[in-house]
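Narrative of accomplishments. A recurring question from our advisory board has been how the design workflow behaves on a single, concrete structure rather than in aggregate. To address it, we present the structure tokens for one chain from the evaluation set, followed by the sequence designed for it. No filtering or post-editing was applied between the two.
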């Protein structure tokens, strides 16, 4: 004989739970789409409120023998240069057009040079959406006025700074160049008999931007002690690993450090400098 299976008394409750779960999932997906759209709207609105100025790319060339970093020179309005007051400031830049992705780029040329020429220079590493749009554009991009406080080296009394140690990696060399070569009050002025060390990390010798400056005028004319650290050549080290093996600060009370790089490197360097007695107010950055 056939036996009839009893109906599950909880079947209706299970169905209700399934419907409720599916409904919650669909509502969550809908809210996620709303939030994404709202973020996009806010980003576009923020860009529309930003004061953008056109800049003409007058020169573009590979910054090194290998890699995707390009050196750009741009012509701008003189009013732009008036806002460029300190080495280490940066600009927002994008390909022309509302809503395009934005790159944050430190200015490589020193303020005094930019003011005298109505031009400025950037190091741009390709591979990102914003950077590629800038590099592949029609020769005209949009930039903001220079932003940020810069390095503010002038906040330290000149007689209190006998030794300056510069740390940077990759395109972080751009604001360091501005600092080393600036002749105004915000410059480093290594010619004033300050001991200046540069610890610069890059993939290899072929990826080295500004090679002629680093190994030429900086090392020979300005007396900068240039230490190049290659992550994919030779000892294959990072800047913090190489600096740890150095002799350290001669007099922390008369020293100053300028640090530009990724968070891990920055934190490691600050920790090592603190161990050597350098106070936090003598560790400068541009962000």
């Amino acid at each position: 004989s056939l036996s009839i299976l009893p109906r599950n008394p909880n079947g209706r409750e299970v169905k209700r739970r399934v419907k409720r779960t599916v409904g919650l999932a669909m509502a969550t997906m809908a809210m996620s789409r709303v939030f994404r759209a709202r973020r996009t709207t806010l980003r576009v609105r923020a860009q529309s409120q930003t004061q953008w100025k056109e800049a003409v790319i007058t020169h573009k060339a590979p910054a090194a023998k290998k890699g995707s970093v390009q050196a750009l020179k741009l012509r701008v309005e003189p009013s732009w240069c008036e806002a460029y007051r300190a080495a280490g400031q940066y600009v927002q830049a994008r390909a022309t057009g509302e809503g395009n992705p934005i790159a944050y780029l430190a200015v490589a040329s020193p303020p005094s040079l930019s003011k005298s020429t109505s031009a400025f220079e950037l190091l741009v590493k390709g591979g990102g959406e914003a950077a590629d749009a800038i590099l592949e554009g029609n020769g005209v991009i949009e930039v903001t006025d220079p932003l940020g406080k810069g390095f503010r080296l002038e906040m330290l009394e000149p007689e209190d700074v006998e030794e300056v140690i510069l740390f940077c990696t990759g395109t972080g060399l751009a604001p360091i160049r501005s600092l080393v070569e600036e002749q105004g009050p915000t410059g480093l002025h290594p010619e004033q008999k300050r001991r200046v060390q540069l610890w610069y990390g890059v993939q290899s010798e072929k990826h080295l931007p500004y090679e002629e400056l680093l190994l030429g005028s900086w090392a020979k004319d300005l007396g900068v002690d240039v230490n190049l650290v290659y992550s994919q050549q030779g000892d294959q080290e990072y800047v913090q690993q190489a600096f740890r093996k150095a002799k350290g600060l001669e007099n922390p009370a008369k020293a100053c450090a300028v640090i530009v790089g990724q968070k891990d490197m920055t934190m490691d360097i600050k920790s090592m400098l603190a161990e050597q007695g350098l106070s936090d107010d003598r560790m400068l950055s541009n962000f």
